[in-house]
Amino acid sequence: MDFLELFNKPNLIAAHRGDRSGKPENTLSALVSSVGRCDFVEIDVQLTKDLVPVIIHDETLARTSNVSTIKAFEDRAPWRVSKFALQELEQLDFGSWFDSRYAPLLTLEKALTFVKEAQLFLNIEIKDISHVFADGVVVEKIITLIQRTQIEHLVLLSSFYHNYLPLCKTYAPTIPTAALQAGRHPNDLIPYLRTLKVDAYHPEDKITTREIVERVRDAGFFVNVYTVNDPVRQQELFSWGVNGVFTDCLRERIRS
Asked: What is the pLDDT of residues 149-176, one digit of tens each?
């Protein structure tokens, strides 16, 4: 089964940044903890200074690591990920902020290796780093690792920075893509999604209505909504035809 076949199943649950209610987000432990408790996992990827794809959500390291306590890095605030080489990031702890236990940096390569072993479907959100790296460089680095691991069928690529999405199709036509959207829907939504050549639309919960879901689904796109922790709201979205929801709380999984 590939990702598009998965979307034909009802009421899909996606673990947002892994099992982030039980483990530090975007770490290997968060991926491990999500196995068997969701239909697919979402993680965030961006590039280091030396162009290595790593799994970190924020543009800076302050919230999810102990970087502010490392004397060698104290003069590099606000500690942007793109200003650190892989070797430097590997010195940081990405877990103690959550539950006092150490967690190492998760690279995309390590995440893909785990996903292949676990046969876990993975939504990779490409963070908008267009102000630092050329779009083609970002997409090529990520897709090269996916192809090298030979798990194209287990992967979905998404981004809020929509310029990445047609490039993804150019580099890897068989890997499905999704447009993430916050705030408001793009004008002429259906023609716009067709221009991007995406397979799915991922709007935030607060802008998602039954009318939007029905219109997008009728046009042939899948719809997955973020971030929905309320089980009642999850059920409502599923009743509208939403394919899946992203949640921080895997314990709240809803099945019809």
From this structure: 999 999 999 999 999 999 999 999 999 9
Residue type, 73: F
256 lies in a domain?
no
pTM (two decimals): 0.96
Q: Which domain holds residue 35?
A: 3-250
Assign 251 a pLDDT band (cuts: 50, 70, 90): low
Long-range contacts at 94-100 (CB < 8 A, ≥ 24 apart): 94/24, 94/26, 94/27, 94/56, 94/64, 94/65, 95/24, 95/27, 95/29, 96/66, 97/24, 97/63, 97/64, 97/65, 97/66, 98/23, 98/24, 98/25, 99/23, 99/24
Counted domains in the chain: 1
> pLDDT tens across 74-95, in order?
999 999 999 999 999 999 999 9
Q: What residues contact residue 86 under an 8 Å CB cut-off, 6+ apart?
A: 48, 50, 52, 54, 107
Domain of residue 129, CATH code: 3.20.20.190
Tokens of 202: 């991922």
